[in-house]
Please model this.
Amino acid sequence: MSTAPRLTALDALHRSLGATMTDFAGWDMPLRYGSERDEHLAVRTRAGLFDLSHMGEITVTGPGAVELLDHALVGNISTVGNGRARYTMICQEDGGILDDLIVYRLGETEYMVVANASNAQIVLDALVARSEGFDAEVRDDRDAYALLAVQGPESPGILKSLTDADLDGLKYYAGLPGTVAGVPALIARTGYTGEDGFELFLKPEHAEGVWKALTEAGEGVGLIPCGLSCRDTLRLEAGMPLYGHELTTALTPFDAGLGRVVKFEKTTNGGDFVGRKALEAAAERAETAPPRRLVGLVAEGRRVPRAGFSVVKDGVVIGEVTSGAPSPTLGKPIAMAYVDAAHAEPGTQGVGVDIRGTHEPYEVVALPFYKRRK
Model:
């Protein structure tokens, strides 16, 4: 039995803008409004406006909230200051990644965990199961929020005209309550594009008014609405992992080259957290003999590699593509791939991607492909 996809509060607006809609993790989401390339370049050079209301918000409150999060997640949540955010992960007992997350500390004993749409229920279930014995409440707040993102070099100016919040004082990975276009919002300086920008958590009934106000405020500087398609090429250029591609339950954070998010030195709960033993072993493996490493690949030709394609050298399979797309910024196809450590050094030549039986030449490069000038 198939269930109808969920709709965001902006569904009618997206359709009125002529968006091409697609099913994404059970949500009907805008894939693009016009040209994916134009939307991508708008974010790199001006600004883009995204509806991200499919993301999963989970609130954790109570005197034991931080102990629960330190137990359930791999990061050190007790060192997150009020009004700050942290990128972290939730792992299985065997160290496999269930999801990558952003945790916002909203108050003394209040945290918001933001999960990927496709994993929101899994993360919610895991947090509820792991909350046993902790003086904390886990609340499903997916329907309590709409989430808009304004991203790109012009985004601070656009948002400044609609809020009295101190945006200049708002650091990357920080969030503060304020008003945007006259309605309450949590304003976070976070994003998934490699550009400066903001994510705005609002009540769903306020989403349309804020979207229209942002559109109007950005008219003079070239802000346009953007869909999931350019969000994917933007994050790929910025070397940011996507769950289900670079991150899966078959990989630990160390396999993904993101071991830095695992904090063995945390002292809450006697230093114990879910997956600790397996992750200690994974850390050791990564140091002594890493099986494969996540690298960037840049095409010499025009053919685009896709997830699951084999990476080859001298006729032997040495890895697998996890994400691939044409890069509007570089002007050629790019990919992220896990390749055998022996071939993972930037500059490695003679590497190919098997695209329908032809070995297309690629160069191994360091990630990210694109880094904005600060």
